[in-house]
Fold this protein.
Amino acid sequence: MRRVLLAFEPPDGGVAEQVLQLARLLPEHGWEPTVAGPRDAIVYPALEEAGVRIERLDIDRGLSPPRLTKATAALRRLLLDERFDVVHAHSSKAGVLARVAARMAGTPAVYSPHCFAFVGPQPALRRWPAVAVERALARATAATICVAEDEREVALSARIGDPDRLRVVHNGAGACRADLEPDPELAEFAAGRPLAAVLTALRPQKAVDVFVAAAPAILAAAPEARLAVIGDGELKEQLERQAAQLGVGDRLRFFAFRRPAARQLREVDVFVLPSLWEAFPISILEALACGVPQVATAVGGSAEAVSDGVTGLLCPPGDAAALATSVAALLGDPERRARMSAASRTRHATAFTLERMVAETATVYRSVAGAR
């Protein structure tokens, strides 16, 4: 079997989930994975259970030069000592560290940005250095795997790399497991009433504050409904204060995320993702797999996953009124939700399975392996 090093950061969210699923299934395609990531990550217990080797590095959300240098040196030593056939870097920070290390070690590098660092609202003084870094490192990248057509267009617009090295492999998600025990707290909160929920890491990008701001209008239009924010992150306390100030605390509740996502999605009637920017969110694919109609903002590759009017509804980012209208429309129409649920399961099964994603990724590996 050929060997691939999967390097990633951050420790949670869709990036970590994709690394977990690749590591689990790549052996079926002739690749033995080793995972290199932060000291702690949400997916490590599952990786250990699957027998995947983990190398813990000093990679964190900060930009401390000594720590970044140390992590790069550790990756270089790993690549030189063990002669991996390919290194696959996930996310911008891991993409910098792993591609520099790969260049020094002479190992072919594959890169998945999962949303380029220069995407989203930020000052030009931060955006243009990020673009310059991506352009420079593209010369040391055998292939860039874009998780959506939109992400490839972003790369082309920013003149990042050779177009022939920009491959599109849409993310995938596993089937919705029916053997999981439902989340008892979520089930008790819903108590048979229609439930709309955000399920995401609580970061500024995800704009969960827009969902909370939309809550009074949603609950006014659908008085029997319940709303939930499922996830953990830096903004949780701020969002809880916002909900309390709006007076919706009795009908909007916060829950910790308990993987796998299907455990909680099975209790949800409408999945909501109000992001300001995205690449191609795995959470939407998990909702498709579980047959949960989606309300999402039309950003990044989300419109490539949500079939507007068929599996769910798309709305503009940052617009609480539009979000409230879409969520309330689905909460108040069980027959429409049932049609969207069936269409969602079909869309997942035909376009966004894990098996398809891993097979296409392994094909990219084979195309670059040996190109030292």
